[in-house]
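Task: fold both queries, return tokens.
Query 1:
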Amino acid sequence: MDYDLTRLGWREFEHLSQALAKCVLGPGVAVFGDGKDGGREAAFTGAVPYPNELQPWDGYGVIQAKFKLRSQGVSSGTEWLERQIEAEFKAWLHPDSKRGQMPEYLVFTTNVPLSPIPETGGIARVDRLISSYAQNPRVTLKGWAVWHGDEICRFLDIHDGVRRAFAHFITPGDVLSRLLTTVSDADAETAELIRAHAGRELLSDQWVRLGQAGARTEDQKTRLGPVAVDLRANFEQRETRPQVERAPIYQAEPGSYATRVAAYVLERGDTVLRPSRYTSTEARNVVLIGGPGQGKSTLGQLICQAYRVALLDKEGEHLLTVEARAVLHSLRRDFRAIGLQPPQGRRWPIRIALNQYANAILGGEDISLLRFLADRVGHRSSVPVTSIHIKRWLRTWPCLLVLDGLDEVVSHQTREEVMSRISDFLLEARQIDADLLVVATTRPQGYKGEFHTGDYETLTLTPMPDDDALHYAERLSAARHHDDPEMRETVMERVRTAIYEEGTTRLMRSPLQVTIMSLLVERRARLPQNRYELFDAYYDTIYAREVDKPGVTGQLLADHRLQIDWLHQHVGLLLQTRAARSEELDAVIEVDELREHIRQRLHEETEDQEEAESLAGSLLEAATDRLVLLVAPNAGYIGFEVRSLQEYMAARALISGPEADILPRLESLAPSHSWRNTWMLAAAGIFTHRPHLRSDLINALRSVDSRDAVTLILTPGAQLALDLLDDDFTRHHPRFHNLLVEYAATLVGRPPRSDLLLHTARTLTSAAERHEQARIRVEYAIRDALSARDARLLTALGVLTFLARAQGAGNSWARRLLATTTQRLKANERAAAAVLSSQYLSGMIPDLPSPSFSVQSESNLAQHLRDRLPDGVPSEPPLQRFLSALERHPVQHFQVEDTILPIVEPSIPLDTDGARAATGHPQAIEACVNVINDQQLTTWQITMTFTQLLDLLAYPSLLPPGDLGVTGIS
């Protein structure tokens, strides 16, 4: 059988060549990873049974792979290969060559087919070329071989294991139809089930969830393809440039790289990830982190569709419906339009909403993720799909699994159970040598690194640059107004104005924001100035649009605006509260329950039972069928399809009612990660609609942090001040901007925290550049922390470094102060600062030694905590489990210059079952507080680690108890 070797790419062709070399030449072949290899992909020393056992090669041999990206005929391929081989011999013979020993045996592998014609064919020409070099007295060749494209195909026929591992690249044509000939033990029934599932998902995933954001035309939903864009994301904890062929790489500063998510994931999938063949030290999976409305879920949808288009090859189109073929053709065109290249490796994609899986677990089902996958694949299938089918397919064919929305699993206990079952599934997949790529998504709020850094590479979505926002707006406008070029141009002209105006540019940094702004500029002259105003204007716009329409429903909406507003706020707050308290994970409410809530509300107002009953159904129908913020994702249920809109409505509810209740309500919610976005929207709502409460809101942040010893350490209020500065809705209010800067700058006077240091530095640097009074406040906080000569000095150094690196004469003070400070550091301060700079700041702090870590001794976290327990050695099981977990967390004591520094092993997660056993336990919390308060400069990393533990253990006690006290809603 002939195989399609052109899809492999140079890296996977090297891996294929290495695998075949081990099969053909024997297990003694040593393979080399990516990077400089001294002119070799593999090598051997000694006897190998080639060309046969009777005439074995015996000596030092090298295997080199030569991959031609595009084949342009046999003749041109031969000439290209001759040039490649000549270049290799010249490199070996160069007087300054550093390649080392000249091989005695040489194998060139190539995807180029060579003609077998005697004398003039490619095989003969290449053989003569190598033979001519072999005559050189400096060349020690005793034997050579060229494994060209046709010969590699014959090797693949023989070596089943290699063929199976690379089948998703090399299978030509309709891969699902040819599966039985490519992989001998594949199950035909399973292949057909997978084809049917891919076809169904191709159709169901063709729509984007933008109807409720105004992207829905009067009678048509919006397709993913015409509005799809690939978004930028930063690599986290990567100091070297990613080695990629096709995905773009951007570098903002040394040690900081970004890429396009879909292109990068598709290229990551163009690697054989079977545990038996994956030799790279890099994480094989990806976790995508992004804020509300940044497009995480849509990117997962886009990546899955790209794999379905590749899997449902042109030769197999005749097996699809006319509708599915039309979607397939359309997506191919749309992907070409945005420059998204199709994956070379055809993986079977499946996407799982983690809150749905969590609900299945909470519903009492003892369901593994494998079984849940089978149920999902079997949905709407005429044939039952079992775990055996899925497991067989995982063993047979490479797969992509998208785990979407970990942040929507709010309960720590449920999240832990979900992650445990994901781990069980991944372990089972490894045991069957599955070629599995996992892409997980989550918001940053409340994310504790559940997707382990050793297994997952972290990508963090960035705010959309102006060019990206314009590109997306253009595609969206073309899709919405494809038959009205004048309106399309009007919208784009206004969008361009909005992007370049200071007041609105920050409101166009996510796909959701650009979508809403594009709708607003169709109808409004004045544009919103903060996120709350953005959602407010959107809601008012679509409400006015529906009221203006003739008919009974338009009149109903006009007459009952207060009730409709209450309905949306009620559902938003109710669902947000339930999710935060983990009563329910799905953002939905039963229709009958909601109708009863509306009826009770109307009965209180009208005191007419019959009228309330009749009107409740009409209002619910008008809200769901015409305003489309509320939708029915499943029969009998109602919810917000876009979570940001649910949070906006919940925020409206939070700032409603008696003013005396508003700030205490917000103060009680301030420490909660799951309420963070809602809280921020509510704060913006206060600045918009209740300006007399602005000062009180900022004072409330201080009250949050002074509640007790725990909040004094965790400072949720100061962190909210940072977030409020990032949202920038105080830009027209310098007094309040400076008050926020003053309180956010108190974080400079805290020991360093890995989750806050960069955020604090970047935000305060930006704020200080805007107002001189803000700069003075930041400078004062830095000088005060530097004078402390303890761990606070390190945080101040980090922030000061960012300020000193910022452009502009206004930061000359920071450059002078940084130079003076680093020169005056004592030995222990230099050592501690050097570790901070190398581990968390990519070596940004100048004039410090590069730490040469020398381990002097080892301990564990429990040793740092045990003596601080109030009653000595614990007898309670939760505390014993807690200490046992900390005993398994090593601490290495390094000597940096002349100073000993304890450093916690970063690759082991703190969020374990044992650690969580002490959640809410007062003795464990008090002990962590004692460790933190006893901090010293050289133990700053111990302090940082126990601050993370404190956040884990004390979090439930910081949440609001009982009712939020929203009149008519709770």
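Query 1 returned. Query 2:
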Amino acid sequence: MAFLSRAFGASLILSLVVAVGPTVAQQVAPVAVPADAPLPGIPGVDQSAWLYKGSDLGRDAEWKFGTLPNGLRFAVRRNGVPPGQVAVRVRIDAGSLNERDDERGFAHFIEHLSFRGSEYVPDSQAKRIWQRFGATFGSDSNAQTTPVSTTYKLDLPSATEAGLDESMKILGGMMAKPAITDAAITAERPVVLAEQREQPGPQVRFGDALRQTFFAGQPLAERSPIGTVKTLEAATAASVGGFHDRWYRPERTTVIVAGDMDPGVFARLIVKNFGGWKGVGANPADPDFGKPDASKPVSGVVVEPGLPPLAAMAVIRPWTFNDDTVIFNQKRMVDTLAARLISRRLEQRARGGGSFIQAGVSIDDVSRSANVTSVNIVPVGDAWEPALKDVRAVIADAMAQAPTQAEVDREYADFDTILRTSVETSRVEAGAKQADDMGEALDIRETVTTPEVSYAILTSAHEKGMFTPAAILASTKKIFEGDATRALLNIRTPDPAVTAKLAAALKADVTGLAGKRQAQNAVTFAQLPALGTPGTVVSRVPNGKLDIEQVAFSNGVRALIFPSTSETGRVYVRVRFGGGYNALPAKRASAAWAGPLALVQSGVGTLNQGDLDQLVAGRRIGIDFGVTDDAFVLAALTSPADLEDQLKLLAAKLAAPGWDAAPIARAKAVALAGYDGYDQSPDGVLSRDLEGLLRDGDPRSVTPTRAQISGTTAKQFRALWQPLLASGPIEVSVFGNVGADQAVAAIAKTFGALKPRAADARAAPVRFPAHVAAPVVRTHQGADNQAAAVIAWPTGGGADGVAESRRLDVIAQVFGDRLFDRLRSEAGASYTPSVQSQWPVGLASGGRLIAIGQVAPANVDLFFRLAREIAADLVARPIDADEFKRTMLPYTQSIIRQSSGNQFWLRELAGGAFDPRRIAATERLGEDIRGITPEQLQATAAKYLRPERDWTLKVVPEGK
């Protein structure tokens, strides 16, 4: 894969890396190794493919395997997506299920301690070391603890062998000798407790209750990775070190590397940096994860007003190891299709105004503890009993009567499309994803293979006649049989009789209550509304710097075309029209809130959403809808073969939108179901109120009230959206694996055939709130140890200020890094402080630099003090050379990696067909970033981070 297919992109990347750090070209020259050949130069390493033991699946020959003499295993491969990056995963086969009762949370605690300091890294310096290599903390360097494993992740951009060697050395030290001292535990404990405190309480409590109910009698029921306050507060160096020594050992470690370098280099560096590691004592036996216990209670009830009413059912079977064979996967595909078919029937009922907003069936292997068929139901309002009855009736009907062959073929077509697409786009699958997929397969003791093999397994099963109505019926019966059936219900208000009601509802006979199955007629693209005579091209203007083409049509539609082979098999379509938030009513509440929920679902012409699903079955065609500051957006990811029909569907949505009332009713039910949750946590209050407050109460940004949601009618919805869909300029962007002439012809037949559109009305600009002497106060009804603090400064907006916005992005990176160090690492006051710069290119104003921290109520003032001290320091003096490098290199590398894909350029060039300043700003991207200096950043900070203009908010517990 070329580094970038556009000439400008290549020069941009070169200029950036020359300015701030090492280039990809500095890495060692690759040694060609045949796909099925062993890696040279690593004597003493067993290179047998340990992953495929017992499996008859076709191997992914790009993966190279090895087992070191100390028992550590590795899997490495070359992958150049994105160019220059190397993804490293170090997986320890131990998680929260390996903990004893008095060690709960220790697996996760060690993850924190390992990043804090280790054999080769002083306290709190690992982040800075990797920043100097261009890695962004949190996204490029992180870790995850699950019930069965702990995985350390590093995505190293523009990797060199020297940088990778140093990184492997650090990771090796983190695994073998983390700094587990009483001092380190005392320093990091507040951070871990802050992470626990900041988790959303209602969701955590429901999740805990779900595990305790579904997996009663098994360790998983009580083994949340975060642990308990009691065990975390009791942790000592001796107790945490004991867990580490028991489970952190080479025999339980797998190093996975996928990146843009010779895999032989990966293997050699793994041997060098992990080969000398020896475990402490004997390797313990795997703990017993238990089996489902049918004697435990069948159901449970929780009362969480912060969550909508929810009913979750599960049929639970023991998890057993299975050799990952072709027939095993084919049988699982049949089971999956059976579950998908039931889910589609449930979705049809939900769309039609049923007793539930949403319901679905899935099958999962859960933490090597159980194989589970799950059914999740969100009822309309609080009426969970009819919803549970109706869902059970649909399932009972599916178990009693075979589906039609047409239903089976419909689900198979989508299944086929998913796997076929993975084949067509396999060349651009990211190395980080391949590394993550390998780790996830190890979690459930399975393998990975190529997309081609996966697709062949599916088509072979189809050829053998495994997808018949009879087979799906048998599979449906099988997936709803198990050792235990459990259910958990959430209600918003206490009901003493609810346990008995739930038990009765689960036993109630629902035979025959499903009613007549809905039949879906065949639909073709000929049934879409006619679009008119294809338009003519007025002009085609190439842009040599960006390799894009600007096209204008006779009806006023304009297009941006970028033919690119950088993402094989993918074509991105973005249709910007109208004025976005800027075109919505600015002086009153409206039905705009329902647009993202209901507009697509409302259909096209006489076709409802079910018809449209049938229309695009087996094809890569869809519709997404969104609202930006200055445009409404229809979007899709399609294929070269499907591009013309994709454009036809999107154009028909604008020309002849459907106005089915059912999606409006569903949107109202969805919005009201989650409304109580806003008050239950600081994060909920922020999601409801912050945007409206930051835009000074502008109705376009204020969350609607319950009454406004309930009062929205289908008539009001249509009255607002019909003229918005019919007016304002249209810009069509087609970026991807398609020729320019093909794209232009397809647009001419579709959007070029639309009638000329009237101009849309634009409303008043957005406003930033006035400075406040004391923070605005909002309250929440959640845990009394949770609060949030927000400080924001107004900046600007518009395409003329894009260069300034890039400097503000860098200031936000510096600000965020300092706030992290002081608030989290030093004070342990917040786990996730964040700082962002938001600059609306499509508006003349409304930008802001904003810092948010979730803290204990006692630390709200500390947050404001530290944030203002950091702001004042950024104004008072330039940042030093090391901090500048540690900021600019990750920032630049992030842009380099994003720019290797089409979505980056879609975002940068959005609106450019009508506003040439946006194209010019994109052309200056390299120049703008290359020209940033510490002195420039100081001047920009002085311009905007003015204490007399800041605005603050705190969200504290009610009554505090």
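Both queries returned. Flag for query 2: DSSP finds 31 helices and 23 strands in the chain.
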